[in-house]
C-alpha cells in the first residue's frame, strides 16, 4: 500500500504523459527581432531565448557557453541564414549535439527538423557570380542583411509559423491565428513607413558595411558605395580618398553608419564632404527601446529621415 502511494506521488510530481506532451516548445532565435517575431507567432505555446544581444556586429558575435546549453535543450533554432551567423551558429551546432538541428557536414548548415531558416523564399540580392575571396569573404551566398528591410517582416513571420507548425503540428491552427494577428498589425505599419520614406527615393548615400541593399530597396535610397574597402575589410586611406571624390562629384549628402561601426571615421568623412551621418541598427535592440521588429524598423527609418531633413 505504501509503495503504490509512493508511485502515485512520483507520477504527480514528475509529470504524467499528458503534461509532458503539452510542455512549451523551446526555441532559440539567433537575434532579437527573430526572438520577437517567434514570440508573436508562437504565443503561449513557445518559450523563446535569444543569442546575440543586437548591439554586436553580427559577423563577429562571440560564442558563449550559455549559448551551447540553450541550443542543446531546444526543439528549434530560428536564424537568418545565408551564412550571416557564420561567427557563432555553425560552431554552436557542432558542440551542442542536438539531433533536432544536425549540421550538414559539407556546408555546415542546419539540416535537422528543428531548423527554421528565415531566408526561405527570400529574393536574395547581390548574389556573387563567382565565389572569389577578392570580393570580400563574408557574403558568399548573396547579401544576408534582409532583416533591415521592414517589408521582410511578414515573410519572416510566415516562415516561422510554418516551421513551428511542422515541429508542433497539433497546434498549427494556433500558430496560424497568431500569424494572422501579427500580419494584421504589420500591414498598416508598412504602408505608413512607405509614406514616410517617399522623400528618400533616388537620394544617393553611402554606408559603412554592405548591409543596406534591402533597406535601399524599401526606402529608394541609392547606396553607391561603402566606407569598408570590401565586405569585412576595414576602410583604407586610398579607398576613403577615392570615396570623398565620388561623394563630392555626385553631391552625396548621407552617410549611413551602422551603430556597431566606428563613429569617428564616419564623422571625419562627413566633415570632408558636408554629408550628414544617420545611425541605424543592423539588429533589433541595437538602440535602447528597439527590441521588437516594429520598433527597430521604425527607429532606423526615423534616424535616416532626421539626418536628411523631413520628419515623419
Ligand atoms: Zn555583412
How does this model look, in words?
This protein has eleven helices and eight strands. It is an alpha/beta fold. The protein has two domains: 170 residues, Nitrogenase molybdenum iron protein domain (Rossmann fold, 3-Layer(aba) Sandwich); 110 residues, 3-Layer(aba) Sandwich (Rossmann fold), CATH 3.40.50.1980. Strands 2-1-3-4 form a four-stranded parallel β-sheet, with helices on both faces. α3 crosses α6, α4 crosses α5 and α7 runs parallel beside α11. It is globular, with a radius of gyration of 22 Å. The site of zinc ion (ZN) has 7 residues, from loops.
Question: Which tags fit this structure?
Answer:
single chain; 312 residues; alpha/beta; Rossmann fold; 2 domains; four-stranded parallel beta sheet; 43% helix; 12% strand; binds zinc ion
In short:
This protein has 312 residues and is α/β, with parallel strands linked by helices. The chain has helices at 2-14, 17-21, 32-42, 65-73, 89-96, 153-167, 172-196, 213-219, 237-249, 263-273, 293-308, and strands at 25-29, 46-50, 76-79, 115-117, 204-207, 222-226, 254-258, 276-280.
* Helix percentage: 40-55%
CATH fold-level topology of the largest domain: Rossmann fold
- The top-level CATH class of the largest domain is Alpha Beta
The radius of gyration over CA amounts to 22 Å
Poorly predicted segments? 4-20
Distance between the termini: 74 Å
Total DSSP helices: 11
Strand content: 5-15%
Which distinct ligands sit in these coordinates?
A: zinc ion
How are the strands of the largest sheet arranged?
2-1-3-4
Can you say what the CATH homologous superfamily of the largest domain is? Answer: Nitrogenase molybdenum iron protein domain
Q: Could you say how many structural domains there are in total? A: 2
> What would you say the CATH architecture of the largest domain is?
3-Layer(aba) Sandwich
Task: Calculate the mean pLDDT score and round it.
Answer: 91
Order of helices and strands: HHEHEHEHEHHEHEHEHEH
Shape: globular
Structural class: alpha/beta
Can you summarize the main beta sheet? Answer: 4 strands, parallel
Count of DSSP strands: 8
Amino acid at each position: 500500500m505504501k509503495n503504490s502511494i509512493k508511485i502515485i506521488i512520483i507520477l504527480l510530481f514528475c509529470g504524467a504523459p499528458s503534461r509532458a506532451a503539452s510542455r512549451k516548445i523551446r526555441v532559440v532565435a539567433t537575434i532579437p527581432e527573430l526572438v520577437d517575431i517567434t514570440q508573436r507567432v508562437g504565443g503561449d505555446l513557445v518559450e523563446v531565448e535569444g543569442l546575440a544581444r543586437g548591439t554586436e556586429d553580427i559577423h563577429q558575435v562571440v560564442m558563449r557557453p550559455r549559448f551551447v546549453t540553450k541550443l542543446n535543450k531546444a526543439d528549434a533554432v530560428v536564424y537568418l541564414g545565408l551564412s550571416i551567423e557564420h561567427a557563432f551558429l555553425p560552431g554552436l551546432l557542432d558542440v551542442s549535439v542536438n539531433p533536432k538541428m544536425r549540421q550538414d557536414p559539407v556546408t555546415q548548415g542546419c539540416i535537422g527538423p528543428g531548423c527554421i531558416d528565415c531566408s526561405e523564399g527570400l529574393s536574395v540580392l547581390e548574389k556573387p557570380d563567382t565565389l572569389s575571396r577578392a570580393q570580400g569573404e563574408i557574403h558568399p551566398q548573396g547579401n544576408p542583411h534582409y532583416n533591415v528591410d521592414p517589408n521582410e517582416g511578414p515573410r519572416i513571420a510566415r516562415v516561422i509559423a510554418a516551421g513551428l507548425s511542422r515541429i508542433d503540428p497539433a497546434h498549427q491552427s494556433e500558430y496560424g491565428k497568431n500569424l494572422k494577428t501579427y500580419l494584421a498589425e504589420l500591414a498598416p505599419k508598412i504602408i505608413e513607413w512607405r509614406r514616410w520614406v517617399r522623400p528618400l527615393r533616388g537620394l544617393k548615400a553611402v554606408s559603412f558595411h554592405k548591409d543596406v541593399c534591402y533597406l535601399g530597396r524599401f526606402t529608394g535610397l541609392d547606396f553607391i558605395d561603402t566606407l569598408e574597402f570590401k565586405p569585412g575589410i576595414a576602410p583604407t586611406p586610398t579607398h576613403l580618398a577615392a570615396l570623398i571624390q565620388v561623394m563630392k562629384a555626385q553631391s552625396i549628402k548621407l552617410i549611413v553608419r551602422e551603430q556597431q561601426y566606428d563613429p569617428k571615421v564616419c564623422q571625419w568623412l562627413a566633415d570632408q564632404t558636408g554629408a550628414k551621418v544617420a545611425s541605424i541598427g543592423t539588429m533589433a535592440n541595437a538602440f535602447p527601446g528597439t527590441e521588437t521588429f516594429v520598433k527597430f524598423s521604425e527607429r532606423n527609418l526615423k534616424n535616416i529621415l532626421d539626418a536628411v531633413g523631413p520628419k515623419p
